[in-house]
Structure formats: structure tokens, C-alpha cells
Amino acid sequence: xxxxxxxxxxxxxxxxxxxxxxxxxxxxxxxxxxxxxxxxxxxxxxxxxxxxxxxxxxxxxxxxxxxxxxxxxxxxxxxx
Length: 80
Hints:
The protein is α+β, with helices and mostly antiparallel strands. The chain has a domain at 22-69. The chain is 35% helix and 12% strand. The protein contains three helices and three strands; from the N terminus they run E-H-H-E-E-H. The chain has helices at 25-32, 36-45, 62-71; strands at 22-23, 52-54, 57-61. Strands 1-3-2 form a three-stranded antiparallel sheet. Helix 1 (25-32) packs across helix 2 (36-45). The chain is extended. It starts with 21 loop residues before the first strand and ends in a 9-residue tail after the last helix.
């Protein structure tokens, strides 16, 4: 039976990193069926989907967009 692999410190190997798909504002707008300018206005106001700045580039995590959409669900037209 081969020995179990472990790190040099004797602890078990760590799980592989999960890579999240990052979308451009155009791709995110298409996925949400919204305009790129709407996303830009919401970034400025601070009440749109969470985004990531990499240098000067804006990116949206696919996972964060899905979570944000779920948070926008409403059951009534009255109230927030």
C-alpha cells in the first residue's frame, strides 16, 4: 500500500483553489439582461452587484452576480 501524500509539515494536502469566472461589464450586463450604463450607474451609487477592480478593469464574479440576483427577489410591489 503506497504511503499517503502530505505536505512537508505532515498535514494533509490542501484542497485545490476554486477559480471563479470573472465577467466584463458587457458580459455581466448581458447575463443580467441590463445595460452596461445601468451597471456603471449602480457602481457609482454603490447599490448594484458587487464588482472587482483589477488595475483599471472592472470585473464581476459570476457567483456574486447570482447571489446579488437572489437578494433582489421580492414578493410584493410595496415596500423595499
